[in-house]
Amino acid sequence: MIDRTFSDISISRQADIIGISRASLYTQPKENQEDKRIMDRIDEIYTKHPFYGSRRIRVALETEYQITIGRDHVRRLMATMGIEAIYPKKKKNTSVADNSHQKYPYLLSGIMADHPNHIWGTDKYSTINFLV
How many of the other CB atoms lie within 10 Å of CB of 46? Predict the structure, then answer.
């Protein structure tokens, strides 16, 4: 898109025309050899233990390979690699009532708790009474 050899329009004007920053033309993404080395180690750990998340992988990096980095850095590298821990995901519709269960009516509808000791409540599992 930007022609550096075109002498009629300057590079900064070309960048302005297409709406990008001139500085972005000169920045080159640097390859971080350290991150590549860490990603190789993360891959080894993840292959052995695919259920490890970023916290456990960070600890494994420190204990097995003496690599000390922060959890956020591990999370970013795992996201770059496209890996995540294998764990049971939440089930959908867990709050949907089963039709075979008995439904009890709400007995306090229309009653205003306007003075102390007016409404008492308990459940079948506890002996503690609640005052409203």
Answer: 19
Q: Is residue 61 part of a domain?
A: yes
Q: Tens digits of per-residue pLDDT, 59-87?
A: 999 999 999 999 999 999 999 999 999 98
Calpha distance 25→34 (Å, rounded): 25
What pTM was computed for the model? Answer: 0.52
Which of 81, 98, 118 is where one domain is finished? Answer: 81
Number of domains present in the structure of the chain? 2
Dihedral, CA of residue 81, residue 85, residue 91 and residue 92, to nearest 10? -20
Whether 16 shows a pLDDT value over 90: the answer reads no
Is 63 inside a domain boundary?
Answer: yes
- Quote the domain boundaries for residue 71: 33-81
In this model, does residue 15 exceed pLDDT 80? yes
Q: Whole-angstrom Cα distance, residue 37 to residue 11?
A: 37
Residue 41 lies in a domain: yes
Mean pLDDT of the chain: 85
Q: Side-chain half-sphere of 73: how many Cα atoms within 13 Å?
A: 13
Classify residue 119 by its DSSP letter.
-
Q: Fill in the DSSP letter of residue 118.
A: S
